[in-house]
Amino acid sequence: MGVGRVSGHPDLSASGTSKYIPEIWSPKLNVKFYDATVLAAISNTDFEGEIKNQGDKVYIRTRGNVTIKKYQKGMKIEFERVTSPSIELVVDQANYWYFGIDDIDKYQSDIELIDQWAEDATEQEKIFVDTEQLALLKAKAHASNKGATAGKVSAAYNLGVAGTPVELTEINIIKMILMCGAALDEQNVPESSRFMLIPAILTVLLKDSIKDASMMGDGKSVLRNGRIGMLDRFTLYSSNLLPKTAEGGVNTWDIIFGHPLALTFASQFTETNYIENPETTFGKLMKGLHVYGSEVIKSEGLGCLYGKPILL
Fold this sequence. Notes:
By secondary structure, the protein is an alpha+beta fold. It contains seven helices and twelve strands.
């Protein structure tokens, strides 16, 4: 017979409704935040520095622009004072979790529940941060890397606008990805390390291109931690957290593409504490604090394809 519970305390026994205590022990490793998040894969952390509290700032120096002038023999030349303004990366976001387990549940369990819940907290934080931050990127992308007249030089690429998203099919999907690449080319964005985030449904449209791992520049596997492979200099990542709306009753997505130099991200778990002997209960508590911030520092390296996938 199990020990009684006060009203509201969850029943974690094998006979309880959650059936969370199994008969077979199955340990799981905690997943590090950086290994789980797509945002960390598409941004740089070069300016992360020492982040200790919400509100910390990282100052990023930018390269100044030198003016090139025509010269004629004998003319008096003038010098210019080149300025290198700085960009502030403000670490102004913070999330926390705080949970515990009763000693009786802990010792009657064959599994380290608190470790599992810590792992789940990391995953839930990843989902929260990715969803929050990815929703901000379209607005910060360069005007020439999105919309119906994308292309800094040519203005020739229709990447979709609100009300008239681009219809994406098996026939045109590769062409649209090439257009995104061309938009970055016209911004002189480096070709290496480019990325594109796509919704899972687009992998269906790309099935003929990704069926062979070697075609995607990946000799090991096609799908791994959201990373699909490479196509036209883009490393493709599948994400279910991209901003989604409905146009005419059909789902449309912001398909984000660019280069990690465009986006900087600073993150740190500043507090992760186990409380062995809390005063209010017989058990063990765990709390964690995650502070972070992001900033687009080179908008020309970031773009958005607003598309409506159509399965033929």
